[in-house]
Amino acid sequence: MMGRIIMKRDYTGKPKPASQANQPQSDQPQSDQPQSDQPSAGAAHDPDICVVTCALTGVLANRKQCPGIPYTPSEIADEAKRAYDAGASVVHLHARSDDGSPTFSPAVFADIKREIRARCPLILNFSTGTILEDVDEQCTYIKESLPEIAALNMGTMNYSKYSRSRKSFVFDMVFPNTYEKITKLLKAMNEASVKPELECFDTGHTQGTWPLVDMGLLKPPLQFSFIVGVLGGIPAEVESLQLQARIIPPGSDWECIAISYGHWRMLAAAVVLGGNVRTGLEDHLYLPDGTMAPSNGALVETAVRLVRDTGRRPATVEEARAILNLEEAR
Predict the structure, then answer these.
(1) Contact 67, 100 (CB under 8 A)
(2) Half-sphere exposure of 325 toward its Cβ, with a 13 Å CA cutoff?
(3) pLDDT tens across 275-284, in order?
(4) pLDDT tens-digit map of 299-321
(5) Is the peptide bond before 221 cis (omega within 30 degrees of 0)?
(6) CA-only gyration radius of the chain, Å
(7) SS (H, E, C) the chain
(8) 133, 182 in Cβ contact below 8 A?
(9) Residues ≥6 apart with Cβ < 8 Å to 144
(10) Residues of the chain above pLDDT 70, percent
(11) Structural domains in the chain?
(12) What is the sign of the dihedral through the CA atoms of 268, 278, 221 and 117?
């Protein structure tokens, strides 16, 4: 019987025969651009250095669930300083009103940046995630506050939480991220020279970045975040990280974001696989022994210890800035 010719796809989405895909130096997707023109930054840094990011507050959890979650710009900045002192080099930031409800107010994001800058030199990563189609406020605070990084969700998905004990959904929503929405945010980031952090909840989100590279809206080297453990996305398994890491283009950096259960096991897997890691009260409320984290600093201390125990070390702010190919703080 004649064997099948298995077709693989390069990073531009074009199919090619498996025999060609298996040639030396072709085991990862490539772009149409000549290899000599591909940026090599991001792949050449010391593999023993790990960038530790702390996601300080998020938008879903509240103080009834965890008393340590910060709400106000001053509280968020105090938590940022604790994370910095514990070894984080980047903070991922959402904004909240004083009552804890989420806000996209450019003025609040500006206050958060000012308060953090007064305390420590951390790299700032602003969230842009919203279930709304209107991202005008996000574009405004990107252009006005000029964080080094802005998170960019790369695909639409079911975003839900299920309770096994109640046999019902705690929440159930669609998180829409069309290319039109992504493109609008990307144009604002490019105009402001802000680096996009590509948040991918599944392999389709990761593979789906190639048209934006082809259009010139995404400029390598790219920075990916693989979110695992969210219902509707890829499961929290080591194989998930391995698959995602194979899909990204050469020269890219990646980190693991593990939500809730399996947080520490997945961060350990990411460290062993050579990735960067994120922790913080947005992602997980508990220390490895099951006790509730009193602060973001306590979570970062645990993540840094995990990094060191595997023979790597946390990046300084200056090292993280070089690894992630970031401009100087503004």
Answers:
(1) no
(2) 21
(3) 999 999 999 9
(4) 999 999 999 999 999 999 999 99
(5) yes
(6) 19
(7) CCCCCCEEECCCCCEEEHHHHCCCCCCCCCCCCCHHHCCCCCCCCCCCEECEEEECCCCCCCCCCCCCCCCCHHHHHHHHHHHHHHCCCEEEECEECCCCCEECCHHHHHHHHHHHHCCCCCEEEECCCCCCCCCHHHHHHHHHHCCCEEEEECCCEEEEEEECCCCEEEEEEEECCCHHHHHHHHHHHHHCCCEEEEEECCHHHHHCCHHHHHCCCCCCCCEEEEEECCECECCCCHHHHHHHHHHCCCCCEEEEEECCCCHHHHHHHHHHHCCEEEECCCCCCECCCCCECCCHHHHHHHHHHHHHHCCCEECCHHHHHHHCCCCCCC
(8) no
(9) 106, 110
(10) 87
(11) 43-323 (3.20.20.70)
(12) negative
Dihedral over alpha carbons 99, 59, 156, 280 (to 10 degrees): 170
Q: What pTM value is reported for the model?
A: 0.87
Of residues 198, 253, 201, 261, the one with CA closest to residue 228 = 201
Q: Are 322 and 45 in contact (CB under 8 A)?
A: yes
Q: To which residue do tokens 């965890």 refer?
A: 66
